[in-house]
Backbone:
């Protein structure tokens, strides 16, 4: 599988699950995490791909998802946490 085909498949996977780690994508494609990060940079030039760095990425993604269910003061607090 070449880079273009891999990137297209990565984009399809992200559209389906939206929260993947570089490690899990690297395992799926049998490439390094660095290759996946390079692919994500290339994809972000053409598509709205948002990445989160660090070991707390999944937790932040969960907080962003939870934020969609909040209103009022709870929403303000969550926004300040995420900022």
Residues:
């Amino acid at each position: 599988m070449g880079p273009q085909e891999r990137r297209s498949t990565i984009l399809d996977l992200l559209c389906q699950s939206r929260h993947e780690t570089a490690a899990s994508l690297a395992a799926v494609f049998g490439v390094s995490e660095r290759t996946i990060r390079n692919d994500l940079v290339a994809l972000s030039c053409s598509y709205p791909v948002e990445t989160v760095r660090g070991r707390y990425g999944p937790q932040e993604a969960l907080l962003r998802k939870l934020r969609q269910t909040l209103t009022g003061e709870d929403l303000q607090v969550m926004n300040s946490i995420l900022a």
About this structure: The mean pLDDT is 85. The chain is about 70% helix and 0% strand. The two ends are 39 Å apart (CA to CA). Residues 27 and 33 are 8 Å apart (CA to CA).
